[in-house]
Amino acid sequence: MAIVLVGTLDTKGEEFAFARDVIEAQGVDVHVIDVGVLDDAEFEPDTTATEVAEAAGTTLDVLREESDRGEAMTAMGEGAAAVVTDLFESGELAGVLGLGGSGNTSIATRAMRALPVGVPKLMVSTMASGDTEPYVGSTDIAMMYSVADIEGLNQLSRQVISNAALAMVGMGTTESDVTVEDRPTVGITMFGVTTPCVQAAREHLEEWGYETIVFHATGTGGQAMERLIREGIIDGVLDITTTEWADELVGGVLNAGPERLDAATQTGVPQVVSTGALDMVNFGPRDSVPDEFEGRQFHVHNPQVTLMRTTPEECAELGEILATKLNAATGPAAVALPLGGVSVLDVEGEDFYDPEADTALFDAIHKHIDPAVELFEMEAPINDEAFARALAEKLDEYMRAAGVGP
């Protein structure tokens, strides 16, 4: 197996040769993939830029002739993803290391995101001290800030690149002593305002023999769970906190995209879905909230997070969306309604207590849900221990019936 380097060898050949040499000095094999388009590689790679372009369904000549930087980066990212996937599936890849500015960061992390969670991935980048979400997405890419631009070797770049190369050697060649128990795995979604429910449900499930993975419903959290469902890592879903759909509908900052709730539905994984935190839309600091929302009900969660109460009209739309998603389920599915409130803020005396909005949400689900989807409700808030246990019991019932229980 080899550490795979993904880089533009026409402009960063010296730096990648240095990283290669550091790794090989540790007795570890290296496979270099050239994704440079502008000129020839400064040294001979293991996979050429020509081969990467062909893996993307184009040619290097075409990319050079068209001289469209954005199109070239997209193509080389797709090609690199195909190449590293082939290397991984053939057992030749121990980890992936990238070095570069925005261009190679885009290409190399596109390749990294094609690999399963758990495969070592490290990107040394000038972009690592800013918003890394476009590069990391919902996978486990480690970002290391290069401090200075990766342009030539000097006392600073040698140290940073050497540290990254040695980190990859450690990650790619050291056997983990982590014990992996063979237990069915449940994915659970959580927000701070649904934490008591999640904690109680998780404790029940673990007591009954399940392993649980809790995802923070911050957009990328929901995306990560959807990804792991499709990868077969998650056997059942307790989707307590579907708040990301409120941000998707209204325009908040923590949306997970229109595919949220699709993975379990399409793969047939048993799921129990609730309405956690659908009373709120998320924004950054209070002064970052768009002017169009002035006059709405807000709750300042902390200096960096401002919450906005969803209206009855928005809640009705959210209820229809949840029902429509679940109606397409190919496996056992239930929706659970906490009639006493969908978050710690949605109870009497708290900022987001709004029975009219909650009624609109619940009525829409009743109206649009297919009879094939089980619906149960309790006169309790979502964080009531009895409601949490009911959620866990229903999912346990589904998973055992499907043959994926403990």
UniProtKB/TrEMBL annotation:
This is Tm-1-like ATP-binding domain-containing protein. Residues 2-174, 183-399 form the UPF0261 domain. Keywords: ATP-binding, Nucleotide-binding, Plasmid. The keyword ATP-binding applies. InterPro entries: Tobamovirus_resist_UPF0261, UPF0261, UPF0261_C, UPF0261_N. The keyword Oxidoreductase does not apply. One of its GO terms (molecular function) is ATP binding.
